[in-house]
Amino acid sequence: MIFKGCKYRRYEAWYKFNLLKLILPMLKHTFKIVGLSVLVLLIVIVTRTLLHTPEAANLPETVDYSLDEDLLLAHLSESIQFQTISHENSQGVNAQDFANFQYWVSQTYSQLHQTLELKTFNDTMLYKWVGTDTTLKPILITGHYDVVPIIPGTESLWKQPPFSGTIHDGFVWGRGALDDKSGVIGILEAVNYLMARGHQPKRSIYLSFGHDEEIGGVKGAALVADYLEDTGVQLAWSLDEGSFLLDGFLPGVDKLVATINVAEKGMTTLQIVGKGVGGHSSMPPSQTAVGVLAEAITKLEENPIPGGLDGLTLAMFDTTSREMPFSYKMLFANRWLFSGLIEAVLAEDPAMNATLRTTTAPTMLSASVKTNVLPIEAIATVNFRVHPRDTLESIFEHVSEVVENDNVEVRPMVWDGFGLGKSASQVSSWESKGYISIEKSIKSIYGDVIVAPGLMLAASDSRHYGRVSDNAYRFNPFPLTRDQLTGFHGTNERIGADDFIRGVKVYIRLLEVGSSQ
User: Fold this and answer.
1) Would you say residue 434 lies in a domain?
2) What angle do CA 43, 49, 54 make, to 5 degrees?
3) Is residue 267 classed as helix, strand or coil in its secondary structure?
4) Are strands 373-374 and 279-280 parallel, antiparallel or unpaired?
5) Is residue 410 included in any domain, yes or no?
6) Is it true that the peptide bond before 180 is cis, omega within 30 degrees of 0?
7) Helices in 334-378 by DSSP H: which ranges?
8) Tens-of-pLDDT digits for all 517 residues of the chain?
């Protein structure tokens, strides 16, 4: 027995030894293949990253204009002092403030006002500067002079009174300084400058200054678009408010980033309704209508409308990522490998997430009429900002699929002037003459900046002008920092004095270039 056991162990040892001799070469070969594959992968990643560089700079000649800067800033300051506030309830609008602003424009820019053709649509002003070649399609440069109200109770938080137009500490302060009286005054100053020097455009130019953009533009820009359409005017391109020259928004990028928005999101609002049995609050069921609604909203937030890094969003990041540090550049240069990671990281930032998909935002809740009454229905109002890849119908279908059951109903809401909502705009070309004119004008003043197509997350009057424009663009030629972002519809809205002056120069250059081609 002992002998047999020893013999078995010797056989077992021999077997293991020979098996190891067989396996080791195979393992070495496998390790070599894996190592070589990893090396090849690293080489591909690094090579693609090194090749992911900005396109060769083709900077236009830098130009400058001698302006009376103090006068320009004084005009912007004066414009802010008119409280041209758009209220949701039209009865709250002070019509005299709008009339006073229009009169101020006619006096401050008297040559422009007396020379150009003017039509008004309610309080929206449409000027026409007739070009020398009326066979060419005209262009439209536009902005809006209405502003949103000051949030009640926040007046004391303003460092300068919100309608003072105070020029202090290098800024012009007040409601409209960014959104959008700086745009309106910038355009007026540019035209005024060119007219004073005898400039005559080859291509006709329309100038539209809206009075109700903040409440949808249905009594201003929409009527202007109707007029242009009825008179057979098709614009070569239009430029409205939009993004800015962003300063410090991209990690590791120290250049200004000018995102010219070539599309804007649409919008729709749905009601999510949780249903219950009602009754007295002293005898509640295991789940009330409020509990049903809470579950539905949680499901909706956990299942956002699918997005992705494609189309316009991809074009924007492909351009801007070429200027980023190596680690970020590596991800975007190798989207085939890191696309999932990129999208997950971008989705964590609200602004970046909004470029990827249609966003879901529960904004209003209502339920019982009394503290001791169980509601039969609990209702959440949910606002969606529609990405160009989605439709109003596809959003309704997605929401219904996620939340609807015997106790949950999805109801569309009808908006005044917008039906069930507003689809996203068409995506304009970023290779057209209009886009190129805007890009050249920016670089003529600011020099080496990054210019990329972008998506406007909010809405503008271009929702109307887009239907009479071959291409509709949205961009304000003023630098903007993160600190200034809270001023939009918020507190301490302000624009840098020097930034405003440079923006006026961009408008001058754009009117020269855009109307001559």
Assistant:
1) no
2) 150
3) strand
4) antiparallel
5) no
6) yes
7) 335-347, 350-356
8) 444 555 556 555 555 555 556 666 766 767 777 778 888 889 999 999 999 999 877 788 899 999 999 999 999 999 999 999 998 776 677 899 999 999 999 999 999 999 999 999 999 999 999 999 999 999 999 999 999 999 999 999 999 999 999 999 999 999 999 999 999 999 999 999 999 999 999 999 999 999 999 999 999 999 999 999 999 999 999 999 999 999 988 888 889 999 999 999 999 999 999 999 999 999 999 999 999 999 999 999 999 999 999 999 999 999 999 999 999 999 999 999 999 999 999 999 888 899 999 999 999 999 999 999 999 999 999 999 999 999 999 999 999 999 999 999 999 987 655 567 889 999 999 999 999 999 999 999 999 999 999 999 989 999 999 999 999 999 999 999 989 988 999 999 999 999 999 999 999 999 999 998 7
CA distances from 68 to 190, 211, 505 (A): 12, 28, 12
Residue pair 192/116 in contact (Cβ under 8 Å)? The answer is no
> Which domain, by its residues, includes 480?
69-249+454-514
Give the CATH number, domain containing residue 103: 3.40.630.10
Q: Residue 449 contacts by C-beta under 8 Å, 6 or more apart in sequence?
A: 245, 255, 256, 257, 258, 442, 443
Q: Which two tokens stand for residue 113?
A: 């006002």
Q: CA 113, 473, 460, 345 torsion: positive or negative?
A: negative
Sign of CA dihedral 308, 470, 190, 99: negative
The two three-digit tokens of residue 462, written as one number: 């271009």
Q: Which residues are catalytic?
A: 146, 213
Half-sphere exposure of 84 (CA within 13 A, CB side): 30
Alpha helices in 151-309 (DSSP H): 181-196, 221-230, 289-302
Task: Give the amino acid at 85.
Answer: I
In sequence order, what are the residues at sequence separation of 6 or more whose Cβ sits closer than 8 angstroms to the Cβ of residue 84?
97, 98, 101, 145, 146, 147, 176, 211
Closest C-alpha among 280, 420, 294 to residue 365: 294
Residue 258 covered by a domain: no
Contact 309, 335 (CB under 8 A): yes
Residue 506 lies in a domain: yes
Residues in the chain, how many?
517
Short-list 283, 272, 344, 284, CA closest to 308: 344
The residue whose two tokens read 């291509």 is 203
Residue 474 to residue 460: CA distance in whole angstroms: 8
* CA–CA separation, 323 and 318 (whole Å): 10
Distance CA 226, CA 207 (A): 15
Tell me the C-alpha distance between 371 and 22, whole Å: 80
pTM for the model: 0.90
Both structure tokens of 317 = 């990041």
Under 8 Å CB-to-CB from 91, ≥6 apart: which residues?
A: none
- Tokens 């820009």, residue located: 221
Match 């290779």 to its residue by tokens: 431
State how far the Cα of 467 lies from the Cα of 457, in Å rounded to an integer.
Answer: 19
Place of tokens 């533009």: 217
> What is the total count of domains within the chain?
1
